[in-house]
Amino acid sequence: MADVLERVTKIIVDRLGVEESQITLEASFKEDLGADSLDVVELVMELEDEFGMEISDDDAEKISTVGDAVNYIKSNA
Amino acid sequence: MKLQGKNALVTGASRGIGREIAIELARQGANVAVNFSGSEQSANEVVEEIRSIGCKAFAIQANVADSDSVTEMVKKTIEQFGTIDILVNNAGITRDNLLMRMKEDEWDAVIDTNLKGVFLCTKAVTRQMMKQRSGRIINISSIVGVSGNPGQANYVAAKAGVIGLTKTTAKELATRGITVNAVAPGFITTDMTDKLSEDLKAEMLKQIPLGSLGEPKDIANAVVFLASDDSRYMTGQTLHIDGGMVM
Ligand SMILES: NC(=O)c1ccc[n+]([C@@H]2O[C@H](COP(=O)([O-])OP(=O)(O)OC[C@H]3O[C@@H](n4cnc5c(N)ncnc54)[C@H](OP(=O)(O)O)[C@@H]3O)[C@@H](O)[C@H]2O)c1
Questions:
Q1: Nearest-neighbour CA in chain A from B177: distance (Å)
Q2: Distance (Å, whole) CA B174 – CA B22
Q3: Do B81 and B54 contact (CB within 8 A), yes or no?
Q4: Which of A30, A63, B212, B219 has the most other CB atoms within 10 Å of its CB?
């Protein structure tokens, strides 16, 4: 599981076209990484595919930072 | 052929306008998932006809108002075809009554099938289309959703709702290469309109400048246009195919 952050980072970099250096656990997708609501939905979809899990709409709504995503995956994968 | 190799899902494709849409999409080269609710036999006939044209097709039972069966239908379609390029939300019912006589279950049944059904099917294909970065969603509204019609409060509310839903979905998905448009048919000869009295039909005819009822093919042609590259620069629009009834 050590590479969760690495894999999440790669997806974010590809999807949002941001620099790897901008990605910290505190970084908010919308505030800091320039994502719009639809980008966040897509990110969650890609995380589902990458980690072979289903993230419910309710849970997805709570994911707003990189740390939220990493923690969710670590505790549910 | 305008739709060579495209994959389509058409709801309510066992009869009437949906049947014609499914067959016309196939004539343009598309493979079609033929959704039905109760008419399995008719759906199988549509499948046979599409196969005889040389495209892939299969029949799939699902109530569009039920989210689990819609999810399952979309999953099966992706399994069979690999992609969904075109969704046509056509399934629809009527339960006509004067507002003062209309029962709550008549209201609910029509809103559930004709409006919620469009929402559920659209939501279910969106994930796949967003991944593809392309898709065409075509919603069958009705001209009475624009003009209003006595005796059809439930139906008109649903069909006007579909036009609003079309515009919002178009705005939400535009950046992902997905277009969403509606077709508003006028009076088209199908089982739905065969039920109407001769008096009422004569009355309607007077309101149609082009002087005749439409054929399912008239609607199918508009759907092919909206499903093809010819309409690439339009989204959120409602095409009136109604012999000039509402201008
Ligand atoms: N005919 C017109 O003049 C006219 C005018 C304006 C708009 N429209 C619209 O055009 C569309 C098609 O109408 P039509 O005249 O072709 O009607 P139709 O001949 O009565 O056929 C309706 C189709 O919808 C299917 N359906 C009904 N409820 C369903 C459900 N809950 N889930 C899945 N499928 C369902 C039926 O399937 P089963 O037979 O398998 O149950 C059938 O294939 C409708 O949305 C209608 O409102 C029609």
A1: 13
A2: 25
A3: no
A4: B219
> Is the minimum CB–CB distance between A32 and chain B shorter than 8 Å?
no
Please tell me the distance in Å from B167's CA to the nearest CA on chain A. 17
Question: Could you give the CA distance from residue B81 to residue B21 in angstroms, rounded to a whole number?
Answer: 18
Mean pLDDT, residues B34-46 taken together: 98
Tokens 């659209």, residue? B122
Structure tokens at B18: 């949906």
| pLDDT for position A2 | 58
Alpha-carbon gap, residue B87 to B67, rounded angstroms: 16
The 3-state DSSP class for residue A54 equals: coil
Active-site residue identified among B155, B173, B181, B226: B155
Find the length of chain B. 247
Helices (H), chain B: 16-27, 40-53, 67-81, 104-111, 117-132, 144-147, 153-173, 191-194, 198-206, 216-227
